Every structure is written in structure tokens, then in C-alpha cells.
Amino acid sequence: MKDKYFDVIIIGGGLAGLCNAIHLSKLGRAVLLIEKNSYPKHKVCGEYISNEVLPYLAFLDINPFDFGAVKIDNFQISTTNNKLISAKLPLGGFGISRYTLDFELYKKAIKNGATILQDSVLQIDYQNDIFTVDTKENHSFTAKTAIGAFGKRSLLDVKLERDFIQKKSPYLGVKIHVKGNFPQDLVALHNFKGGYCGVSKIEDNAINLCYITNFSSFKKHKNIADFQENVVFKNQYLKDVFKNTTPIWQKPLSISQISFETKNPIENHIVMCGDAAGMIHPLCGNGMSMAIQSAQIASKLILNYLNDANASRNEMEKLYIRQWNKQFKWRLKAGHFIAKLFRNDKVANILLQVLRRAPFLLPIIIKQTHGKPIKV
């Protein structure tokens, strides 16, 4: 492929990157998406998405239920001492694996005419109102705009000298797919000492088990199996799920250095989307929908900027920061606060006792980390 000029270069092909590629190419823009991995690919992820994104996915001509997504209406949460509370999800959601959803989004982007290149970005430079992107395979591309959708942590974060990357993150994520009995319409969040695990159905009658823990707790044990046996399984609900299901994979996936530090939605004029812009605690179960919604915000503003010869880049960037904060800043703060409460076993147990006596409060708390259906 000859190196050339694009309207937009997107670095990273997860949910945010792919939704941007579909949206921008759908409306006629020349888009290059650079992703280091091939599709399809499993990722450490809770794989539950709030229904708030369905109108926008419909605009992108994507119906997750065509690919086996499972409708989810009910929620359960347990504390470390095995106290359980249940509630209806205010808006509801669905379960689908990243393996399937990312692959379908990738195919839609290709169909729309977006160029997708498997490569690694080494450098992004911005000079004279143009971005130049250099890759590991010695390609060099230029574009009017650039979107950073490269996930939780990247070497590009180091090169851009982003504040959050200077701080070590203590969190580790582990995920596995299993087969067995679990309610079709339920997402459960079970706490254990030092972490919590999400459980929900995805396509093909599989169950996604994904947990996050403090690395200091994990490193006291020999391996994942030892940690699960001695820590995770202290929660009886998790023990029952793990012990009474059959793993689909030979071994779990894991990811370290997960950061929940505050990030800037714009860095060196690059529009950051998805986890690259900010990551909500998995306890709140809404990171996937936030990534998808951030793509809608970015794409609309970039299209307006590209379509208006007199438009100001600085104004576009200010609008993105303002709209991103309006949609997500409170959710992130609420998520951090809720996660902090649940990290303290005594506080978490007291909180759950309150919720058991006043269950109407749980949907109100859930709403603090979720939005309304996206207007298209």
C-alpha cells in the first residue's frame, strides 16, 4: 500500500477506534485505522454493554443481536461475606464478546471503505496543522485530524508524556470464557478481598468471567489458579460459578497496569477516545458503552470541522473536551467513589445492608454511572 494523505488517522482498533472509522467513512471521509493486532481477538473486558448505545449502533448499521448478543435486564451484587442483593437494571443492556463485536465492527468499517492497516504506530507528530504518523513497518502517513483510541496504556502515552503514565497502576485484570448454567438475563458483580468479578452470558451460550484485583494481593500467590482458590473462591457465588462450569480456553487472559487516573481528552491536538480518554472502574460495568459513545462525540465534531473550511481546530477541541466532560466526568467520579467504598470490606457490607433494606436505592446508584439512550 502506498503511503498517502487521509482526512482522519485513527490509532487503535478497539470499540472507539472502529466506531469512529465506521461513522467517518459512512459519511464519505478518507479514514485510515492502524491496529497492531489482527481480527478477531479476545480482550480482557467485562463484555456487558448498556442499552444506551443501541440507537447509535443502529445509525452505524450494527445490530449486536444479529451476532448473538444476549439481552440482560437484571443485576446482582454480593459482598465479601456473601450477602447478596438483586435489582432490575434501569435501562438494561446486552452481553457480547469483544471477539465477536470487534470483528463485526471491523468488517463494517472495511465495507464502508475505511482503510485498516495491521501495524504499530511509533510516532505521532503535529506540525503546520497536519499530523504525520510513522509506523513500525516504515510507513509514514499524513492527515488533517488524528484520533487516539489505543486503549488503557500504550507506549504512545509515554512518548506524549501524558501525566497518568508516570504513575504506576496497581491493578490486574483476568478473564476467561466458560460453559455452564447461568441466568441468561443477569449480570452479576461479586466482590472478594482486593477485587471484584463480573459474570454474564455472551453469545453461543458462553459465560464471561472477568475480574480485577489489586496486584499486591495477587502477588502473594503462586499463580492465577492459586489466587482464585485462596482468595476469589472465598465468595461462595464465585466459587459456585467457577467450580460448576467448564473453561472454553486452556488458560485465562490477563492484563496488568490498568490505570484509573484522570486523563486529558485532547493531547497534542489528538482527539482521545475510549479508554485512552478515561477509564471507568469495571465495578460500574459501563466502559464499553462509554467507548462507543465517545466515538459518536468525536466523529460528529471532526466531521463538522472537516466540512467547514473556516472552522477552528481549537474550537473543535474545546467542544470535544466540553462534551466529553458533560457525558462522562460525573460517571467517572461516581465510579471511583463507588469502587472506593467497595474496596473497604466493612463499608461495603454496611452499604449492602442499607441497600437490602432500601432496594430502590440500587437503580439510583446504577444510573449515576450510566447515561440515557444516545440521540442520533
Could you describe the 3D structure shown?
The chain is α/β, with parallel strands linked by helices and 376 residues long. The protein has helices at residues 15-26, 54-59, 98-112, 155-159, 215-218, 224-230, 236-243, 287-307, 313-343, 345-357, 361-367, and strands spanning 5-11, 31-35, 48-50, 70-78, 84-95, 115-118, 121-127, 130-135, 140-148, 171-179, 186-192, 195-201, 206-214, 246-247, 253-258, 266-267, 270-272. Helix content is 34%, strand content 28%. The strands form 2 sheets. Strands 3, 4, 5, 10, 11, 12, 13, 14 and 15 form a 9-stranded mixed beta sheet that branches. Strands 1, 2, 6, 7, 8, 9, 16 and 17 form an 8-stranded mixed beta sheet that branches. β11 (186-192) and β12 (195-201) form a beta hairpin. α1 packs parallel to α3 (98-112). The longest helix has 31 residues, at 313-343.
